[in-house]
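Because discrete structure vocabularies remain unfamiliar, it helps to consider an illustrative case, giving the amino acid sequence and backbone structure tokens:
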Amino acid sequence: MRFLARTGLFTGVLAVLFSAALGAPPYSPREQSWRTGDIVFMNGRSWRSVFVRLAQGYSRDYSHVGLVSVRDGVAYIIHASPTAGKEAAGAIVEERWDVALGADRVTGGAVYRLRRSARLRGDEVRLQAERFLAARLPFDDAFDLSTADRLYCTELIWRAYRSIGVDLRPARTGKYLFPGDLLGSDSLREVAVF
């Protein structure tokens, strides 16, 4: 117990568990400011979200990430979900923003955008993400970046952007690519917080 207290691990575990369990204040994402190709970082409520936050070392509140696709003025989020789809292992899905970011799923988050991006680049990224969706790629529960036939949430974003020549993976990452790792990219800027 002293080790946990001395390293801050105990406090970090409690903070993660309580933030996932307690209700967050109501938020209202400014959907109208989102663009196709934006990246939504989310702080989820599930036990998987707690695990991701613990694995990141408590330094980030984001446990999940998805890509914005705006159609007819409505924002949708394409993401790799470990629980969605017919397969037990999950799948890549597209959901309306208010479903994907429902208060029952997330406690908050942020929207990021490429620094010098044109809308055309967002459409290119969306097309790649839609290819993953159309291929019905399953969720990668092994979190293996070396294979492209199964994807997890951060890998989906990384591969979609890499397909247009933008590598969001920072030089110093470990074996896994976490949502917080993408925030280390100089290519992104924050445009909204909820």
User: Anything to note?
Assistant: The domain at 2-193 is CATH 3.90.1720.10 (endopeptidase fold (from Nostoc punctiforme)). The first helix runs from residue 2 to 7. The chain has one domain: 2-193.
